[in-house]
Amino acid sequence: MSKKPNRRRTAAVLTAAVAVWAPAGLAAAPAAHAEVVDIRYECTTKIGDRSAVSPVDITAERKGDAYAITMTFDKGVSDSPVELPKGVMTPRADLVLGGDDQGTVQVKGVPNSAAVPAFTPIRIGTLTGTYTPEENGTVTFTAGVLTVHALGMDAAVCKPAGKPAPSLTLTVTGLPQDEPADAEEPAEDEALPGGELPRTGGLSTTTALGTLGGTVLLGGVGGLLWLTRRTRPARP
After folding, report:
1. Claim: this prediction has a pTM higher than 0.90
2. In 3D, which of 49, 116, 118 has the Cα closest to residue 81?
């Protein structure tokens, strides 16, 4: 004889499962959003001007208070009129920061691991660098100037045409915040608002002298009264 399913129990199990999964899902929300952006590069080379379009991907991985940045090119952006031997070509690029931070971050590639035949596109490959934010916020990364260093010179300098969209939007959190400095108390001899000196510690020199002068004055008056009373003639 089969038992009918307990609907209340099933609902309770599903509710508990959702309750357990929801915080994990929220905690796993990505702190970075990356998009592959097609960048049209206008290049100035030793053999004339060139242009090419390459999909560019920029990603970030947190390393303590810094981020390891990786920039990947899917296609080459220029070529060489001569064969480039192994190890003579090194690319580098500037990433333009936006949002809550400004400036640039440089990423750099490794020397070519194989010879590059003449008049074939130079594959850029992967460039890496480090971004160290100074405060929390949202920062964008956009492809900037790309430079191909080969045969001891900057053989190609490529600039993105127009205004490309950011390839990475990074949300920086968890950095220590600067605490406001405590208000400094006025020094003992420093004037308070209104020009009045603070009344701290013992009596000041001026107050002490004033008190001493008052005491002497009162003593003199008392002595004069006493002498006057002594010298007054007796009544008949």
Report:
1. no
2. 118
